[in-house]
Design a protein that fits this description.
Helices cover 59% and strands 3% of the residues. The chain has 128 residues and is mainly α. Residues 11-79 form the HTH merR-type domain.
Length: 128
């Protein structure tokens, strides 16, 4: 009786993950060194990513587009996955980021106002 074939692997190669997410292979390797995604090594030494890595990389990219740093994403992911309600945990992170952005906008507006007040002064860098 022939030995049964092993179940086909659903893992993704780095090229497959790159194609599925639009992130370069170098970008994926960087995410891996930052601990944002994980791969196991196949017997040939190549990376093998689990299918859920596609959604995880998309999560990271979306968070980056929303202004989160990779450090914030890494820290936030650890917190989020430990919560019973992941959606509520992500919403809380988004609210915190929104508060930080609003504070930054207010600070930039104050700086802009101070600069605008000095335009046209005889010596713009003199104490106001």
């Amino acid at each position: 009786m022939p030995t049964p074939l092993p179940a086909p692997s659903h893992d993704l190669s780095i090229g497959d993950l790159a194609a599925a997410t639009g992130v370069s292979r170098d970008g994926l390797r960087f995410y891996e060194t930052r601990g944002l995604i994980r791969a196991r090594r196949r017997s040939n030494g190549y990376r093998a990513y689990p299918p859920e890595a596609v959604e995880l990389v998309r999560y990271v990219r979306t968070a980056q587009q929303l202004g989160f740093t990779l450090a914030e994403i890494s820290e936030g992911m650890t917190q989020v996955w430990q919560q019973p309600d992941i959606d509520a945990a992500i919403t809380a992170l988004l609210r915190e980021k929104l508060v930080a952005i609003d504070a930054r906008i207010a600070s930039l507006q104050a700086t802009r106002d101070a600069l605008a007040a000095r335009v046209g002064m005889p010596c713009p860098l003199a104490s106001a």
